[in-house]
Amino acid sequence: MHNRDTFTQSLLAASIKKGMTVLDLGCGTGDVTFLAADLVGETGSVLGLDISQPMLDMAEERLTQTGQTNISFQKLDLEQLDQLDRTFDLILARRVLMYLPGPAQTLSLAKQRLKEGGLMVFQESDALGRQLNPDFPQHSRAIDLIWRTVAAEGGDIEVGSKLYTLLKEQGMEILSYQSENVLQTQESGSDLAWVLDMMQDRIIKHQIASKEDLEEIRSALPSELAQSKKAFIRDTAFGIIARK
Ligand SMILES: C[S@@+](CC[C@H](N)C(=O)[O-])C[C@H]1O[C@@H](n2cnc3c(N)ncnc32)[C@H](O)[C@@H]1O
């Protein structure tokens, strides 16, 4: 069954070779950093950067548990990428560009940290799939609330379909650009109730929905999925690979 890393793994498998030096922008708790480290092997290395110390603490904790020597983490705001004094064979990010106030500026700095012929690999989601589920009114309501909250926080919820233009404007050569719909079924279940729980305070703070609305949606989700004969289109992921 599909999991949230399947699309990422195919992007990384198509771009990362053994021995590469890789930079993971906005690594969070290191999910993608660890995937990349498996592919570069012991002769390569991966550096994960994030602005959030709690995220980095969790990433470091995982690193201690695995004992891997080809991974390191560093606290850095991506707007200050010029402070890094190394260059890399490949620079990647997953679900990060959408949160940046100026993705073009960050990409320009990242390009300066990329070796000649080096690759950029980005995965972003995009809210364009919101209208794709007319048979799932409550799931659609939930998805819509989530995207509107991210937008209210300043996130670019259409960055997935802008990746091509963003990288072209940096003078990068686009090698591949793909999107994939992530499906949820009765068998896989839906993670939307969990996401609504996680985001509840933010949704209420931005007055996107009330606590009562959220409870109503949450309680309707399981039966809506159980009664449907269709798959629910949960997310549209975009992936791009480009060369300097
Ligand atoms: C949705 S998470 C994605 C984490 C990871 N890339 C993944 O796919 O599992 C976004 C991450 O971007 C980080 N981030 C956002 N703005 C940043 C900035 N200006 N500098 C560094 N990291 C940033 C956040 O702290 C967070 O860990």
From TrEMBL:
Database matches in InterPro entries: Methyltranfer_dom, SAM-dependent_MTases_sf
Keyword DNA-binding: no
Ribosomal protein as UniProt keyword: no
Keywords: Ubiquinone
Pfam families: Methyltransf_31
Domain of life where this protein originates: Bacteria
Span of domain Methyltransferase: 16-169
The protein's name: Ubiquinone/menaquinone biosynthesis C-methylase UbiE
Organism: Streptococcus loxodontisalivarius
